[in-house]
Specification:
heterodimer; A: 403 residues; alpha/beta; Alkaline Phosphatase, subunit A; eight-stranded mixed beta sheet; globular; B: 332 residues; 10 helices
Chain lengths: 403, 332
C-alpha cells in the first residue's frame, strides 16, 4: 500500500466510518490535513468511535476539533513541533491508519519503544494535552462529584489496617453504624441522579451481583456480564488454537469484537463500553476485583460521572491462567475474600485518584466504607484531612455532612 | 550469581518506608551485607524478556518481547565461556516461562551458537514430567502479560532426560518435590539448588517472575509475589553460604529488570502494568554482595542496567567488548 500523507486526505476515504463520526471528520478535514502522522491516528482512534461515545467524550472531541480548526497553519506547526520530530517507519507510513487507527497506534507504540523515541513522544503528548487544556478548559461539573467505594464484602473479621493511603486525605470514622448501609448509599446515589439528571452521569458498578437500585443509574456488574465473559473465553480458546496466532493478532481480533459477538444487545454506547472492559482490560475477565477497579477507572476517564458508587465483591482464588479463563460461570468457584479485601482497599485508592483527575476536584467528595463494618474514610472540602472521629453515625448522615 | 527480582516491583512496595514490611529478608539480612545501589535506570524496552536480555547482554536489546528470538548481542554467558574457555556446564540460566528460552545465547556471529548458557525452564520440565494435573497446576502459571498465549519453544532446550543425567534427579523425585512447592519461582529455586549441588556452575542466572501476576490487577497477589521473592532471595543467599563450591567465593547480584507504573501517571493503571515508561517504571535498585564486595555501603549515583554485564566481566575476567554499559567502579 502507498503511504498517505495527511495533506491528501479526502472525505470519501472515511466512508467506512459510522455516520456521525464521518460527518464530524468531513467537516474538519482541513484541520486534520495539517497534522503530523505521529499524532493524527491517535485523534482518529477517538473520532472513529464517536457514535458510541459518552456525552462528555463527545464534547471533548468536538472541543478539540474546534480548537484545531481555529489554529492558523503557523500555530498548528508550533503546537505539533514535538510530534513532527518523531520519525516513523515506512511500514507505519503505509499502514491503513484511516480505517484502523487503533491498530496503527498500537504499532506506533511498539515502534517508539524500539527506536527509543518513547520519551520524546511522551513529552510532545503531555505538552499538547496541557496546551489544549489551557486553550479549551474542560467545563466544571454541574454539581460537585461524589465517589463512593464499598469494600470487603464477605469478610467477617479482619486484622488488616485499612484505608492507609486514603486516611491522610480525610476523616477516619471508626464507629459507623453499618445497618442497612448499602441501601442508604444506593438511595443517596439514586436521589442525586434524579436531582441532577444527566445521560450516563450517575453510575453504579458492582464486582458481584448488583443490588436493587434506581433505574436512573448506569449499572455495570461482573455478575450480569457472566454470559458475555463465558462467550469471550470460548472465542479466545478457539482463536489461540489457530496456527500462526500470536499476541498481536489476538489483540487485533479482540479489538474488533462487537457487542453482538458476546451476546450484548441493549444499549449501543454502554454495550461497547462493556465489551472494551472485557477485551482491553487485563485481568477483568478473571478477577472481579480487577473488573470493578478497571470499570471504575474507565467510567471516570470516559463518562466523567457526577456520581459513582463502586462495590467490590470477592474474586476467585488464584489458579493457573488457563483454568481461570475457562471458568465461564461463577458457580463452583472458590473465593478469596481476604485477598479481595486487600485488592479492593488499593482499588478504592485508585478510584479516588481517578476521580481527582477530573474537573472540580477541589469540590469533589469521596467515601470508602468497609461493608457491614464500622470503618469508613470521608474525604471532601468539609472533612479535615488526616483526622479521626469516633462519632456514632450512619452512612446517610455521613454523606449529608460531606456533600 | 545473578537473581532478577522479577517481574517488576515498585519502590513503594519494596524499599520505600511503606513497602519495607514486604521485604524483611532483603532489609534485615541482605542489605547489611551488601553494596546497595539505589538508582539503577533501565532506558530500554520495558518488557520482561527483552529487558532481561538487555541485562544479560549489556545492550538495550530491541527483539520482539513475545517472540522466541535470541538477543542480538553477545550475552555475559558467551563472553564468559569464549574468553575464559569454559565448558558448557559452567554457565546456566533458570528462567520462568517459554518466552525466556532463547536468553542463554545470542545470534551474534562472533559468539552465538556453542558459547551460550544452558537454559532450564522448570515449568516446561514439570509439564513434560506430569502432563499437568491438579497436583501441579499452581506451579504451571505462565506468561502473566499475555495470558492467552504461550510462545513456542525454540533453540537449545533442556530435555527431561537431562534431569537425571545432569541434575541427578529422577522424574519421580522431581514430581514428588514439586508437589510440596507453592509457586513457579519456588520451583525455579529448587532447580537452581540442584544445579548448584550437581554442576556448581561458575556463572548462574536465575530469573524470578511471580511478581508479574500484577498484570492481572490483584494487588494482594502482587504483594504476595514480592514477599515470596524476598524470601527466596534470602534462601538462595543462605544456600550460597552453605554449599562448599560457593561459600566464600561467590558474588551475588540481585536486581529487578525494571519497576512498574506510578500511581500518579494517568496514562497507566498504577502497579498493574509497566507501559508508560515513566521514571518510576524505569528506576530500580541493585544489591551486590559476597566475594570482592564491600559490605554495608549505599551508593546513590545513578547506574544503568546495562552496567551489570561489564561489571560481571570485571569480576570474572572477561571483556564485554560489545556491551554499552561500563563496569561499576564501586565494585572494582
Amino acid at each position: 500500500m502507498k503511504s498517505m500523507p495527511a495533506i491528501d486526505l479526502k472525505p470519501e476515504q472515511f466512508s467506512g466510518y459510522p455516520p456521525e463520526a464521518r460527518k464530524l471528520v468531513t467537516n474538519d478535514l482541513a484541520a486534520l490535513q495539517r497534522l503530523p502522522l505521529s499524532f493524527l491516528p491517535s485523534l482518529l482512534r477517538e473520532v472513529i468511535d464517536y457514535d458510541f461515545k459518552f456525552p462528555e467524550e463527545r464534547k471533548a472531541i468536538e472541543r478539540e476539533l474546534a480548537n484545531l480548526n481555529s489554529l492558523s497553519p503557523g500555530q498548528t506547526k508550533d503546537w505539533f513541533q514535538g510530534f513532527a520530530q518523531i520519525r516513523l517507519s515506512r511500514q507505519l507510513e503505509q499502514f491503513d491508519w484511516i480505517n484502523a487507527p487503533a491498530q496503527f497506534v498500537e504499532q506506533l507504540s511498539a515502534y517508539l519503544w524500539t527506536t527509543h523515541q518513547l520519551d520524546a513522544f511522551r513529552v510532545a503528548a503531555l505538552a499538547y494535552a496541557e496546551r489544549l487544556r489551557a486553550a479549551v478548559p474542560p467545563e466544571p461539573p454541574a454539581t460537585p462529584r461524589l465517589g463512593i467505594t464499598v469494600i470487603g464484602q464477605g469478610v467477617t473479621t479482619s486484622d488488616e489496617s485499612l484505608f492507609r493511603k486514603l486516611r491522610p486525605h480525610g476523616v477516619y470514622y471508626s464507629r459507623v453504624q453499618p445497618e442497612n448501609g448499602l441501601k442508604q448509599l444506593l438511595d443517596v446515589v439514586g436521589a442525586r441522579a434524579k436531582e441532577h439528571p444527566a445521560v450516563h452521569g450517575h453510575w453504579y458498578i458492582d464486582g458481584g451481583q448488583e443490588a436493587a437500585h434506581d433505574p436512573a443509574l448506569t449499572c455495570v456488574s461482573y455478575h450480569a456480564l457472566g454470559p458475555a465473559r463465558a462467550a469471550l473465553s470460548s472465542k479466545i480458546r478457539v482463536e489461540i488454537e489457530r496456527p500462526g496466532m500470536g499476541p498481536e493478532t489476538l489483540r487485533t481480533l479482540l479489538a474488533q469484537m462487537r457487542p453482538a459477538d458476546l451476546g450484548l444487545e441493549q444499549s449501543a454506547v454502554l454495550d461497547r463500553f462493556q465489551v472494551k472492559l472485557l477485551t482491553e482490560g487485563s485481568g477483568t475477565q478473571i478477577f472481579s476485583t480487577t473488573f470493578a477497579q478497571w470499570a471504575a477507572r474507565e467510567s471516570l476517564r470516559r463518562a466523567q460521572p457526577l456520581t459513582l458508587l463502586v462495590r467490590f465483591a470477592p474474586r476467585q482464588r488464584q489458579k493457573p491462567m488457563n483454568e481461570m479463563l475457562s471458568a465461564g460461570t461463577d458457580s463452583r468457584v472458590e473465593l478469596d475474600p481476604m485477598g479481595s479485601l486487600v485488592d479492593a482497599d488499593m482499588g478504592a485508592y485508585y478510584n479516588w485518584l481517578n476521580q481527582q483527575r477530573l474537573t472540580g476536584a477541589e469540590q469533589s467528595s469521596f467515601l470508602v466504607w468497609f461493608e457491614n463494618h464500622r470503618e469508613a474514610v470521608a474525604i471532601g472540602p468539609s472533612m479535615p484531612r488526616g483526622t479521626e472521629s469516633t462519632a456514632v453515625v450512619d452512612l446517610a448522615k455521613l454523606l449529608s455532612w460531606m456533600t | 550469581m545473578v537473581i532478577t527480582f522479577g517481574g517488576g516491583a515498585r519502590d513503594q512496595e519494596t524499599f520505600a518506608p511503606e513497602g519495607q514490611e514486604n521485604i524483611p529478608h532483603l532489609m534485615r539480612e541482605l542489605i547489611p551485607q551488601s553494596a546497595f545501589f539505589t538508582q539503577v535506570i533501565n532506558r530500554g524496552i520495558l518488557g520482561h524478556y527483552v529487558a532481561t536480555a538487555s541485562l544479560a547482554t549489556g545492550v538495550y536489546e530491541t527483539v520482539n518481547n513475545f517472540a522466541s528470538l535470541p538477543p542480538e548481542h553477545p550475552t555475559a554467558f558467551e563472553y564468559f565461556r569464549k574468553d575464559l574457555k569454559r565448558p558448557a556446564s559452567d554457565a546456566w540460566v533458570v528462567a520462568p516461562s517459554n518466552g525466556f528460552n532463547r536468553i542463554g545465547e545470542s545470534n551474534n556471529r562472533s559468539y552465538g551458537p556453542g558459547f551460550g548458557a544452558g537454559v532450564i525452564l522448570p515449568k516446561h520440565l514439570l509439564t513434560a514430567a506430569t502432563s499437568g494435573g491438579a497436583d501441579y497446576e499452581h506451579l504451571l502459571r505462565d506468561n502473566y502479560e499475555t495470558p492467552f498465549y504461550t510462545p513456542e519453544l525454540g533453540g537449545r532446550e533442556f530435555e527431561l532426560q537431562q534431569l537425571h543425567m545432569l541434575l541427578k534427579l529422577s522424574v519421580d523425585d522431581f514430581k514428588k518435590h514439586a508437589r510440596t512447592l507453592s509457586s513457579p519461582d519456588e520451583l525455579s529455586v529448587y532447580i537452581t539448588r540442584q544445579l548448584m549441588q550437581q554442576l556448581a556452575p561458575s556463572l548462574l542466572w536465575i530469573t524470578l517472575h511471580d511478581i508479574d501476576i500484577a498484570h492481572a490487577g490483584a494487588y494482594s497477589l502482587y504483594i504476595e509475589g514480592i514477599r515470596r521473592t524476598d524470601r527466596l532471595c534470602g534462601e538462595l543467599w543462605k544456600t550460597i553460604q552453605t554449599e562448599p563450591e560457593y561459600a566464600g567465593n561467590t558474588t551475588l547480584f540481585i536486581l529487578p529488570d525494571f519497576g512498574r507504573d506510578s500511581d500518579d501517571d494517568s496514562g497507566g493503571n498504577g502497579f498493574q502494568h509497566h507501559r508508560t515508561g515513566d521514571a518510576l517504571s524505569r528506576t530500580t535498585w541493585m544489591m551486590a554482595m559476597g566475594a570482592g564486595v564491600r559490605e554495608g555501603v549505599v551508593i546513590d549515583r545513578a547506574l544503568e542496567s546495562t552496567d551489570l554485564v561489564p561489571s560481571i566481566g570485571s569480576i570474572l575476567g572477561f571483556n564485554a567488548s560489545l556491551a554499552q554499559g561500563k563496569p561499576i567502579v564501586e565494585l572494582a
